[in-house]
Amino acid sequence: MTIFIQSLDYQLWNIITNGPEIPTKLVDGQRILKMNNEFNDHDYKLLRLNAKAKHVIFCALSPSEFNRVSSLDSVKEMWDRLMVTYEGPTSMYARFNDIINALKGLGKAYTNHEFVSKILRCLPKSWEPK
Whose CA, among 30, 47, 52, 125, lies 20 to 30 Å from 12? Predict the structure, then answer.
């Protein structure tokens, strides 16, 4: 995903990782948000880049992943949410997949709730949720 986004436009990747540059102005020594009628061409370019970055992320997501991030304002918030959702060692993800595939192989059609319950029961008592 990183390489794909960088290949489209490296500025998109900067917006995703660092957050968008919001159009502001200096008033009495303080930065405040510009009103829409104060935007210049540079401001619109920044806003378009954020929208383009959001679009790229949205197009890569499944409907359930989309629902996790669609209400967030910035593409950085979306990326951070996705990172938290999928963080964890690859070996842990692979182990969970092995468990789920083994359960599916038993021939019974389990619901997602039943899968989660069975996985949680397999965890050692020392495991603590975050």
Answer: 30
